[in-house]
C-alpha cells in the first residue's frame, strides 16, 4: 500500500497563541547552545562593544575575578536565551516586544559553556487597545551546563489571539 505524499497531513511550526500561554507554566527550551569564542568576538565587534573583558585575552589574563578568562558579552547571553525561546513560544504569533526589565547576570558565561533556557509565563491579559491581541509577560532564565543561572530577564510581549474560523480567513 502506498501513501500519496501530496495528501499527507502537514504541520507548520509556530509559537503559542495568547490562549495557549498558562500563567505559572515553565517552558523549557531545548536543545541548549554551546557558546564559542567566535560567537563572542563576532557579536562584540558587530555591536561596537570595545570592552577588553570580551576581546583582549592577554589583558583579561591579568585581571582578578574571572580566572583570567574573557567573559561572554552579556548582551549576547540575553539575546541567546530569548532566541532559544522563539521556536517554542513566539514563532509566527508574536506581534511585538513591548519591553524588557529586571535584567540580571548573576554569574559569568565563558567560551565553551553551554547555555540552556527556560521561560515562565508570569501574566497575561487581552489588549484593551488592539483587538485580537494580548499582552503576555515572561521571565526568561539562562543556565549554564552546571545549572548555574547566568542570566534572567522579564519581558512583555504582544501576542496574537487564536484566529477564529470565519473571522478573517474564510
From TrEMBL:
<comment type="similarity">
    <text>Belongs to the enoyl-CoA hydratase/isomerase family.</text>
</comment>
<dbReference type="InterPro" id="IPR029069">
    <property type="entry name" value="HotDog_dom_sf"/>
</dbReference>
<feature type="domain" description="MaoC-like">
    <location>
        <begin position="22"/>
        <end position="141"/>
    </location>
</feature>
<dbReference type="InterPro" id="IPR002539">
    <property type="entry name" value="MaoC-like_dom"/>
</dbReference>
<dbReference type="InterPro" id="IPR052342">
    <property type="entry name" value="MCH/BMMD"/>
</dbReference>
<protein>
    <submittedName>
        <fullName>Oxidase regulatory-like protein</fullName>
    </submittedName>
</protein>
<dbReference type="Pfam" id="PF01575">
    <property type="entry name" value="MaoC_dehydratas"/>
</dbReference>
